[in-house]
Design a protein that fits this description.
about 250 residues
């Protein structure tokens, strides 16, 4: 349920990406903004975003505070909102989504692709990343060399990384073992380069890595690398449930 808090008209429209405060003042002056069917004549008027009906040029403005996006991150793109030298994931967003300043929930390495969430909901992001919550993350990987039952058992009992850190037990599912093995890995932490370092600890090298799930959310197979979409209400609800029930 929405909160019954009022906000200035110009603040709401700016938050929704309609324009700068200055541009919104001009829209109001030109009589292009209506509040509950009546022409608004003051950009500073207070509006209840979850009750009042706002239109600009007759188009309804549906206010929302938070935005939730699922992206299939391509290789070569940094999981950040800014970087001086590299393309970042917010560069892939349309202006109407960028205006919300969503940030990635956790990170994927530059050469790793797959599911990444972007949101401006700090509370949910914190919950998903909290080590106490043990939110599962599932990866598909191509690994040089035959992955064995012994590797699976090592992952299941936790791996000691190169810096001495002991990982939580993870699941290693061998899809195909051969000169290049196909596997699925589920981990419950997000240490730096963790999947790659876990394989290094058992003498193997990851050639390709793609995150395919995070908590209850699976990567939408229709999303090509670099594409994204908004989460459905059901998906948002699932994420919130998954983090609150633990």
């Amino acid at each position: 349920m929405g909160t019954q808090k009022s906000q200035r008209l110009d603040k709401i429209l700016a938050h929704m990406g309609i324009g700068t405060r200055k541009e919104i003042k001009k829209l109001v002056r030109a009589g292009r903004v209506r509040l509950n069917g009546i022409t608004a004549n003051d950009p500073g008027i207070h509006v209840y975003p979850d009750q009042d009906e706002l239109t600009v040029d007759g188009i309804p403005i549906l206010y929302r505070e938070h935005i939730y996006l699922m992206m299939n991150k391509p290789q070569g793109v940094i999981s950040a909102t800014e970087d001086r030298f590299n393309e970042v994931i917010s560069d892939l967003l349309e202006p109407e989504h960028r205006v919300f300043d969503p940030f990635p929930v956790g990170r994927l390495d530059k050469d790793t692709e797959g599911l990444i969430l972007l949101t401006n909901d700090g509370k949910l992001s914190h919950q998903l990343l909290s080590p106490k919550k043990h939110v599962p993350k599932v990866y598909y990987a191509l690994v040089e060399g035959a992955v064995t039952e012994a590797d699976r058992e090592a992952f299941a009992s936790g791996i000691t990384l190169d810096d001495g850190y002991e990982t939580l037990p993870g699941q290693l599912r061998i899809l195909n073992s051969g000169p290049v093995s196909e596997v699925e890995v589920t981990i419950y932490e997000g240490k730096y380069h963790q999947v790659k370092r876990m394989f290094e600890a058992v003498g193997k090298r990851v050639k390709f890595l793609k995150r395919i799930a995070m908590g209850p959310l699976s990567l939408d197979p229709d999303l090509e690398p670099g594409e994204y979409r908004e989460l459905s209400d059901e998906e948002i609800e699932m994420l919130k449930k998954a983090t609150s029930s633990r």
